Amino acid sequence: MSKNPGLTVLAGPTAVGKGTVSTYIRDNYPEVWLSVSATTRAPRPGEKDGVHYFFKSAEEFDALVEGGQLLEWAVVHGKNRYGTLRSTVDAAIAEGKSVLLEIDLQGARQVKAAVPDANFVFLAPPSWDEMVRRLVGRGTETPEEQQRRLETAKLELAAEPEFDHTVINDEVRRAADELVSLMGLTPHQR
Ligand code: 5GP
User: Fold this and answer.
1) How close is the Cα of 173 to the center of ligand 1, in Å?
2) CA-based nearest residue to 118, from 143, 98, 141, 139
3) Which CATH code, of 1.10.540.10, 3.30.930.10, 3.40.50.300, 3.40.50.1100, is assigned to 7-182?
4) Using CA positions, which residue lies closest to atom 19 of ligand 1?
5) What is the pLDDT of residues 15-45, one digit of tens each?
6) pTM
7) Is-contact 24 123, C-beta < 8 A?
């Protein structure tokens, strides 16, 4: 644990498994307040509005940006916009909750500018080959989309030194437990 344990930002390369780790935390660590982002991307099968994301039209997202309602936002993979709702995060921090943002690197940099004493955690793949395997294995993106995500991932890997801590996502449960420890919480006994 270090810095401000009230606000932790988890970022890392594409397909490193940030989503899997945050899903594990949502399902197993109710003591972690996981921010639900707004996005212009369409829901994937099984995704629920208000649980996985707040799904927004381009116009609705514009209004959030213009109204200053986003703590950070970014265009991810050159396509859709994603952003963190400022009011809900501020309220959770004020209530003393342990807040976790799972966002991309551009967003993490914006949070670092706004809240320098937040706790920044980089989720790293065990290896480049493993990261490529995970991306291709997911099978939800077209080859062009996969290529675009890999290009983004190369740039993102170089950002590790900007972070306070690195967690290797070798195994989801272990990585989630380490992240929870870095948030100042106690990992569950098993
Ligand atoms: P996906 O479309 O696979 O759910 O997410 C794509 C990427 O968007 C992931 O790298 C995820 O970290 C990022 N992302 C999700 N929510 C936010 C957000 O609120 N802000 C930013 N900057 N990135 C986000």
Assistant:
1) 21
2) 98
3) 3.40.50.300
4) 83
5) 788 889 999 999 999 999 999 999 999 999 9
6) 0.91
7) no
